[in-house]
Design brief:
- By secondary structure, the chain is mainly alpha-helical.
- The chain is built from 6 helices and 3 strands, in the order ααααααβββ.
- The chain has one domain.
- The longest helix has 25 residues.
Length: about 140
């Protein structure tokens, strides 16, 4: 019963909205990866930095609420878009590359169904449940 209450409390996207959100993620991933390729960025750097936002999982060692907060901060568009905008303004190729890689990471996560987390636990996302217990 507690699990059902957590599912209802999350308000996860369903149906066409969920599909649209996942397609937006795929579009972001493809667009940022293409821009990075055109930009001529190092693929070694791309490979290394691409997984960096997932280190935010470690915050779940504290508790679910802290984990969700830190994970969401690393997987929200706000910081990488601000970084990209600032990088353009300052003509900073390094930080622009980091922003593109970061947004590509968020995009592929969303395309695969890994949404922003709710404090109910790691498996509760705005795109629905993930993992073995997903319904």
């Amino acid at each position: 019963m507690g699990e059902m209450n957590a599912i209802n409390a999350t308000g996860a996207a369903t149906g066409g909205v969920k599909i649209l959100l996942r397609l937006e993620g795929l579009t972001l991933f493809a667009g940022m990866t293409l821009l990075y390729a055109i930009w001529g960025g190092s693929w070694w750097i791309y490979a290394i930095l691409f997984l960096l936002p997932d280190l935010s999982f470690a915050a779940y060692l504290a508790d679910a609420k802290t984990g969700a907060t830190v994970y969401n901060a690393a997987h929200s568009y706000m910081a990488p878009v601000a970084l990209m905008t600032t990088s353009f303004a300052l003509a900073s190729p390094l930080w622009l590359s980091i922003a593109m890689i970061w947004m590509a990471h968020i995009g592929i996560d969303r395309a695969l169904g890994y949404g922003l987390k709710y404090g109910a636990g790691f498996t509760f996302t705005h795109l629905g449940r993930i993992g073995r217990t997903a319904t």
